[in-house]
Amino acid sequence: MTEATGNIVVGYSAAPAGLAALRMAAEESRLRHRPLHIVHQLVGDAAPFRYGPDSDFEAARRAAAPAIRAAVAETAPWIRDYELTLVTSPVADELVSASWTAELVVLGLTTSHAAVAVAFDTIPRAVLGRATCPVMLVPAHVRQAPRQLICGVDRSAESAAALTWAATDAGLRGVTLLAVDVAPPRRGKPTPRGDLTGWVQTQHPNAPTTVLCIEHRRHPTRLLLATAEGRQALLVVGAHDGDGHRWRRSVARQVSVQTRVPVVVMPPHLTEPEVGSPVKVAVSR
To answer: What are the boundaries of each domain within the chain?
Structure first.
């Protein structure tokens, strides 16, 4: 297993959700010693006509950059160096492209209400379904660093990757990791405590991991969210590959649209937390 060397990519906007995402992305950049890459879409009066002359885009870029620099200085004063990409094309496409070489993509969430999220959080949903690296979703009201990491596990390859990511982040933050069993019961019986404990110890024999086994798994999403919210935690889950119906019913999808705490979703095709090496992404249109 090689060490990941990708950057931390954040989708920025001046809205509360964008500032919350910037704050968490800057913290991950500091903890992991990875470069920060800020992606911002020019919209409305700040956006030049997409097929207009290059001079229009350059003028718009110069006008937008100072406000973003000021936001970085206020939100994350420890960040001295970062890359800024400004686009007028769909920002979700730019973020998905950046995910190919990123260690993490961070996005803000406007709401934790599933029905409202369909209308307002379209960019996070679009990126989450196509990104090739872990995606962190940060609710707009989040201001403080997590006090604990919680990982939902079902003993799959995806949850193993989620557990590895969570253990690494918990170690960097100096907090504990709580593994929560969300696997469906076998033949209607709860999983014995030793079963999950043994699986976690096999995955991370040297990691001091607290394991919580839940006998009643009829509502794993509620369990994860209630546990994470009560502990002011960062939640980590793995997404399984499958069709649209399976995704809509998955714990990862339900958590991503209902969470009131930051959540990291591991993509279904990522079986290891390494995703590539850093490259410089040029300003694109």
So the answer is: 7-139, 148-261
